[in-house]
Design a protein that fits this description.
single chain; alpha/beta; five-stranded parallel beta sheet; globular
Length: about 425
């Protein structure tokens, strides 16, 4: 008598976004994909996984040699090519598709792609990350470069190198950076450090470069403790950069930026602001404008009918399931996961997404197996901010430290992450 074994069709998990969250979920599901129990399809419009926290190094990297070779060296340190690394997504049940999802049919459980075709899913994972927000500032989109992607970073680097060539022949160069959060501070500090080195190397007169960092808050790095903000401000000043606090960009045009004091809060007076200039506005000459002042969220989830908050983040429960859905999960920057302690959404940080991914993946499998889902419990982790050269600031549980050791720790954590992905 012959025995027939019925093979169960693999359940399909479609992940939109090869972000820290998306790639993390895909890799956590890999063992089940190898067992042919689950089929995972990872979709992203870019053929690489990008380490956003290292883009400032690409934008300011000083590498000698042919321009194309230098750019390849710099981008290889901030990106992982998903088509080149076979070990990342191996097996017929774990695949990567470079394309853009244009629509999600919730009723039919299908996603449609820009280049044609569609994928059916049993479970959908939204890990779309975030995107640039310009807040309607006139001229910003047309005349500033955001620091949000590898192509952005390379554009900035090319313009910086062109400005260095102009400085070599006696021109004064002005660079304006909008936004004093982590990205803006990292970039400004590293840019100041790099320009100092280039000025020394090429005997460029002191004062040829003017860097201005514009921040609407009363201090830099608002999510960090004030002690780290003070260290960051001192470090930026050490590299010769100027900082305008309590200041907003009003409009951007070719060769200039108009700034103004931020709107007053109830009970405030103009004299309390730290703008550093008088009057209602100031014009700053700008050969290059870099924008790091805010993030928005992709419209796809809202356009597809998923529950979103006022900022466009997907509303999720403590198990990452989207509100009102049983087979759709969201995590990372695009998800509004409410921290039970602060009652606010978790910050859009890579370190947060990396910790969310294994829990979300486990809950996807638990839902398949009809098991209870696990609640994600956020915990405080060290926050490290590079401040130019081999120097960084660290904040953890009310304690802060700045120097080479935090920089070494940041480098180790970054290397550890890359090794875990490609290993």
């Amino acid at each position: 008598m012959k025995t027939f074994i019925r093979m169960r069709t693999p359940r399909k998990v479609v992940i939109i976004g090869a972000s820290f969250a998306g790639l993390g979920v895909a890799r956590a599901l890999e063992p089940r994909a190898e067992d042919e129990d689950v089929e995972v399809i990872l979709i992203d419009s870019r053929p690489y996984h990008q380490f956003h926290g290292l883009l400032y190094e690409v934008a300011t990297g000083i590498v000698e040699g042919a321009a194309e070779d230098c750019e390849k060296i710099l981008t290889s340190g901030a990106c992982i090519n998903l088509n080149a690394y076979d070990r990342l997504l191996r097996g017929k049940h774990l695949t990567f598709r470079c394309d853009t999802v244009t629509a999600i049919d919730r009723a039919a459980k299908r996603v449609r792609l820009q280049r044609g075709g569609e994928f059916a899913y049993d479970t959908l994972v939204l890990a779309l990350g975030s995107e640039v927000a310009t807040f309607g500032i006139p001229g910003l989109k047309e005349h500033a470069i955001p620091l949000k992607s590898t192509p952005d970073a390379l554009r900035i680097r090319r313009q910086v190198l062109d400005l260095v060539e102009r400085a070599k022949v006696g021109s004064q160069v002005s660079i304006v950076v909008g936004g004093g959060g982590a990205t803006g501070v990292e970039f400004t500090a590293e840019l100041g450090c790099a320009l100092q080195k280039l000025a020394t190397r090429h005997e460029i007169p002191s004062g040829s470069f003017r860097i201005t960092l514009v921040e609407a808050a009363s201090r830099l790095l608002l999510p960090f403790p004030p002690s780290v903000s003070r260290v960051a401000l001192q470090r930026i000043h050490r590299f010769g950069a100027h900082v305008l606090l309590d200041t907003c960009m009003q409009r951007v045009a070719i060769g200039r930026v108009v700034v103004a004091p931020r709107p007053l809060q109830p009970g405030e007076s103009r004299e309390q602001l730290l703008c550093g200039f008088s009057g209602t506005e100031q014009v700053i000459d700008a050969d290059l404008v870099v924008w790091t002042g805010g993030i928005g969220f992709p419209a796809l989830p809202k356009d597809s009918g998923f529950s979103c908050d006022a900022k466009g983040r997907v509303v999720v429960g403590d198990d990452f399931r989207v509100a009102g859905e049983t087979s759709v999960f969201a995590l990372g920057d695009c998800a509004a996961f409410i921290d039970p302690k602060t009652k606010k959404p978790l910050p859009a940080l890579a370190s947060v997404a990396v910790r969310e991914a294994p829990v979300a993946a486990a809950n996807i499998l638990a839902a398949f197996d009809e098991l209870p889902l696990t609640q994600f419990r956020p915990r405080e982790i060290p926050a490290i901010i590079p401040l130019g050269g081999k120097y960084a600031g660290l904040a953890y549980r009310g304690w802060s430290w700045a120097g080479r050791l935090p920089w070494a720790l940041h480098t180790f954590i970054t290397l550890q992450y890359f090794c875990s992905v490609i290993g």
